[in-house]
Structure formats: structure tokens, C-alpha cells
């Protein structure tokens, strides 16, 4: 019997970032130490169905699911693992010791999947339910930043019903945040989907309508004109550390979906000209925000800097950042002296360490 840990790598998923997930997973799979781990690949289709099987990655990519085995991750704390149905009964395909969700956006980065892992009592890479959910909701996230005196741009959150009830009042509230440009965003999305830069009231109205297509909660935020976009990678559980900062230099009007995934025009650099004091400030804020939101394992913390005043604003935290070898999260660690394979190994170790901490919690109260 092998004593290797059984590691489930989950990819795909019911989100706009399905393809990004496949690219990230391919990179992760290429460096897992198979002398140490038995890797079980688990794919989730765009429709949300779970599968295992030979050539899973390629079949998921080609959307050819016909020869794959439908699989179910069952939250049975005594026996977590991946199951299938055989002769009308649930049958265990493989137990799992730890899972690595290499997926981005809704149903994976928002706490939903993490909830399933908690129910299964299994170790998993990345933030828990709370950290995931808070970091994905841009509105709630900003309130946590405010409470911790971390600088952010002024904002207001509307819900869809408010917009439908009295749009004039909402436009006035939004315009009271700051002068144009204002940014409108769905609160719980990523990849710049549904985000607009608004230069006047006409744009603002359009932006609010666009954002409300994707979420019940809509954020309006003061916009910076051509800000510097600085990103820091954070790694750790109770004692997180920050990488060197990197910079994204978009060529579009802002860092749009097309630039992130289609045109590839934005430049990602891991060497910035920021002063050592500025670097220390940014790293300190990144770690403070990470801790305040109960992140674990990893996150990429993004900042906007006003070019005129050099004021730094924390923009958002991504709890499952892009993971291809050329993505910012691993690139920043590489620039900080941690190679891609060592980074993946560290993430697995952090997940196991967190499980040990979780297991210390008493679940029953008996008098
Ligand atoms: N307040 C702002 N001022 C200037 N640019 C912004 C502002 N908010 C967002 N942007 C631009 O939009 C991009 C996406 O916004 P962001 O809040 O990071 O959402 P996402 O979660 O989709 O990445 C940013 O990378 C930046 O280019
Ligand atoms: Mg962003």
C-alpha cells in the first residue's frame, strides 16, 4: 500500500474563468511531486458536473465529456473522497487527503466550494469560507478595510432593487462619492467583467445597468485617472509574508477582460522603481489586509496608486489568483526567491498545517 498522500486537483468549473482555470491547472499539474503525492484529477464542466477519467484535461478543454466518469465529491467526514454510481449505488473511486481547487471566480473562489470541503473535513489549499466570501465581495471587503484603517478609494454599494426603485436618487448618491471618473462594478465578480469607467452621468447610468446584470450588489467607486497598478503576492497562514511587488501596465483604458485574457497587451513586470519605503508600506498593507480578512494559504493583493499624489489605495484581494507559470502570483514569488515547484509544495504544506489547526477546535460541548 502506498503511503503517499492523495491529492485532488480540481479544475474547470461553472464560471466565466473556466478556461483560465484549465491553464492554471495545467501548470500546477506539471510540477506536483508524484513521488510524494498520488494525484487525482477532478474536472468540473461548464454546466457544473464533476468528472474523472483518462485524458480528463484535454476532454474538458474540448468539451467532449462522453467518455468521462461522472464523479461526486461527498462530504462524508469519516471518508472524504471522490465517488461514482455503480449498479445504482455510491461507490468510492478514491479517498482524498487534500484538495487543491485551481479555479477562479464564482462557486470556487467565493466560499461555496470551501464550504463543501469544510463539511467533508478535508484539508484544502487557500482561504476558508469566510476569507473567500469577504474577499470576493468588493463591498463587504471595503468595509473590512475601513475598519482596519487601510486606505481605499471612496465607494458606495447599491442593491439592484434600489436602482430599479429610484435611479435618480442613486445617480445623485453616486455622484456625491467623488468627481468623475467613477467606476461601476458588480460586487462579486472578477476578470473585469461588468466593470465600466464612467466619465459623465450618461456613462454612469449605463455602467450601473451593466453591473446590475451580473450581481444584485453594485459598487460605485471613485476612479483614478491612469493609476499605477501594483500587485503583491502573499503566502502563509498565521504568519503570512509578502513577495516583492510587481506592476501591471495596461494598454487599454483600464485593465479590461480583453487585456487580461485575449489581447495579452498588458505588460507584467516584477521589477518596479518604487522606493524601499513605498515597497515596505505596500507589503505591510498587503499582510494587514490578508490577516484582517482571515485569508489563508495564498492571495494576490492589488493596489492602485495615484500618480499625482503617490497615495496608495488597496484595491482588492484575489484568494485564488491566476496560476500559470507566467501569472503574476507565481512570478512575484519567483522574483522573491521561491521557485514555481517550491511554491506549489508550500501551498500544500500550508493546507495540511491549517487542517491541523482546524482539528484542534472542539466541536462538541458536553457538560
Ligand atoms: N477606482 C479605480 N480607478 C482606476 N482604475 C480602476 C478603478 N477600479 C478598477 N479599475 C481598473 O479596472 C480593473 C479591474 O478592476 P478590479 O476592481 O480589480 O476588478 P476585478 O476583480 O474584475 O479584477 C483594474 O485592474 C483597473 O485597471
Ligand atoms: Mg483586479
Topology:
Blueprint (H helix, E strand, L loop, with lengths): L4 E8 L5 H14 L5 E8 L5 E3 L3 H6 L7 E2 L1 E3 L6 E6 L2 E7 L2 E4 L10 H9 L2 E2 L4 H8 L1 H10 L7 E5 H6 L1 H9 L6 E5 L9 E3 L2 H14 L2 E6 L5 E9 L4 E2 L3 E4 L7 H6 L4 E3 L6 H17 L4 E9 L6 E7 L9 H8 L4 H20 L8
The structure holds adenosine-5'-diphosphate and magnesium ion.
Main location: cytoplasm
Enzyme class: ligase
Function: Cell wall formation.
Describe the protein's architecture and organization.
This protein has 367 residues and is an alpha+beta fold. It is built from 12 helices and 19 strands. It has a 6-stranded mixed β-sheet with strand order 4-3-2-1-8-9, sandwiched between helices. Strands 14, 15, 16, 17, 18 and 19 form a 6-stranded antiparallel β-sheet that branches. It has a 4-stranded antiparallel β-sheet with strand order 10-13-11-12, sandwiched between helices. A hairpin with a 5-residue loop joins strand 2 and strand 3. The chain is globular. The chain binds adenosine-5'-diphosphate and magnesium ion (MG).
What brief labels describe this structure?
367 residues; alpha+beta; Rossmann fold; Dna Ligase, domain 1; D-amino Acid Aminotransferase, Chain A, domain 1; 6-stranded mixed sheet; 6-stranded antiparallel sheet; 12 helices; 26% strand; binds adenosine-5'-diphosphate; binds magnesium ion
